[in-house]
């Protein structure tokens, strides 16, 4: 997508969507956020202890 995100018609045609934020993010930052969330989900599913406990 461009600086204003994806075209609304493109979004409506999608079968599923995921959102990392209400904001439009630079691609590099979006990748970092997605990887961090996937790692966090994997850690929870693997019963890895939370670092703040």
Number of domains: 1
Major pleated sheet: none
- Specify the number of helices: 2
How much of the sequence lies in strands comes to under 5%
Global mean pLDDT = 85
Uncertain parts: none
- The assigned structural class equals mainly alpha
Q: How many strands?
A: 0
Basic shape: elongated
**N-end to C-end Cα span:** 39 Å
Helix coverage percent: 40-55%
Radius of gyration: 15 Å
Order of helices and strands: HH
Task: Give structural notes.
With 53 residues, the protein is mostly helical. It has one domain (8-45). It is built from two helices and no strands. The protein has helices at residues 8-13, 27-45. It is elongated.
Nutshell version of this structure?
This protein is an all-alpha fold and 53 residues long.
Question: Which key phrases capture this entry?
Answer:
single chain; 53 residues; mainly alpha; 0% strand
């Amino acid at each position: 997508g461009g600086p204003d995100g994806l075209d609304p018609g493109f979004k409506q045609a999608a079968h599923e969507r995921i959102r990392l934020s209400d904001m439009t993010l630079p691609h590099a930052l979006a990748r970092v956020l997605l990887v961090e969330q996937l790692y966090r989900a994997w850690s929870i599913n693997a019963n890895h202890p939370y670092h703040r406990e």
